[in-house]
Amino acid sequence: MTAAHEQRRLAALHEYELLDTPAGDELEAVVRVAAVVAGVPNATLNLIDENRQCQLTTHGFEGADTKRSDSMCAVRFESGEVTYLPDAGLDLAFTFNPWVTGLLGKVRFYFSAPLVTPQGYALGSLCVFHTERHELTAEQIDRLKDLAEVILALFERRRQARVNAVLAAEVREQHDQLEVAVAELRRSNHELEQFAGVVSHDLAAPLTVVNGYLELIEERVARNDPESARWIGASTRAVGRMQRLITSLLSYARAGHAPFRPEPAKLGELVEQALTDLRGDVKGATVTVPPDLPVIEADPTLIRQLLQNLLGNALKYRRADRPARVEVAARRDGERWRISVADNGIGIPKAQRDRVFEMFTQVDPAAGQGHGVGLSTCHRIVERHGGHIVAAETPGGGTTVSFTLPIEKSPS
Predict the structure, then answer these.
(1) Boundaries of each Histidine kinase domain copy (predicted)?
(2) Are residues 39 and 75 in the same domain?
(3) Cys staple from 88: which of 42, 94, 265, 288, with CB 3.0 to 4.6 Å?
């Protein structure tokens, strides 16, 4: 055998972690059975490492480690074939072996079945022997080979159990780390929600004051100083944008932080309430709401906010070349309601339909028509209800946003 093969064989042996460890009841039992099968008083399970023969467990005699050069099993075990000698003294390969000459033992009958892994690496052998000449039948030889296979299976089971224990420990550690990370994320999210709510509220009040003073200044200078009037108008519009952003942030914070109180709610009524709030945006658009929308188990405040965002987007992002049409629909899908808001507006590019539910994501930031908070708020509301929300293309052009709600009550 080459040096490289020997290195791989030794690596395979050490991977099983058998050397210098207790054999265990199962291996000891197999060695005892081997002696009975062979009809001899002695049996041993030998492992061959770099320099020695380790007798892992023995039957009929006191085992001990010996030099590899003295081992009878080490002579031919790497061939993968059994060694069967009714009288070992008659085989020149063993005539002068110390186990035969009397230095370590007086072996006459000798049989060994190599322990060869599926990868072809011989670890040692299952050996039976006697101080008298002895012969085996073909049936006995076959059963001893079977016992060698049993030993290899026990080796592999022990190795796999050790690997599984290591993996289980790693999984437990990762699970513990994940729990810590989830707890930290929840704490962080809670603090961010509180921060968004407090900061948004605290910013809204001074902006109202700023806007009021801008109106007073505009009344005084507008007629006499057109340039100042333009500056004041730009400032007023900027304040308006900031107020709308703050309102969106407050809605987002409330969607994740507000108490979750599901109850039976008529979806049709929630749609009508959302459209009432959007009555200024509905002008010039056709909104179709079927009369048979279901009763859902949901938090009505959050679902109204969700519908207002979806309907508001559908009405806002119209196409100039055709009248706006918006259609609300709901159907049962297994154990869920699938509710959709479809429009024939400008649509969302396919590559961006997943991203639009992320915070501050806008399809066309240059258009200045939103802040990228509305759909992320919708996503948060649907998640709190245990549902899922997606955006797709409406047949003929436009956007259809669909979300699911469990039919049974789902806790936050």
Answers:
(1) 198-409
(2) yes
(3) 94
Which residues, 6 or more positions from 334, have their beta carbon under 8 angstroms from its beta carbon?
none
Looking at residues 118-142, what average pLDDT do you find? 95
Tokens of 190: 């809670």
Whether 251 and 270 map to the same domain: the answer is: no
pLDDT score of 411: 46
Q: Which of residues 221, 255, 289 is at a domain's end?
A: 255
Which range marks the domain in which residue 185 is found? 178-255
Backbone dihedral angles phi then psi of residue 179, each to the nearest 5 degrees = -60, -40
pLDDT at 359: 63
* Whole-angstrom distance, CA of residue 358 vs CA of residue 263: 28
Question: For 2-16, what is each residue's pLDDT tens digit?
Answer: 888 899 999 999 999
In a domain, 373, yes or no: yes
Output the CA angle 370-371-375, nearest 5 degrees. Answer: 90
CA–CA separation, 130 and 349 (whole Å)? 84
Q: Which residue has the tokens 């959302």?
A: 274
pLDDT band at 412 (very low <50, low <70, confident <90, very high): very low
Q: Are residues 201 and 240 in the same domain?
A: yes
Rounded to 10 degrees, the C-alpha dihedral 240/243/244/250 comes to 180
CATH of the domain at 379: 3.30.565.10
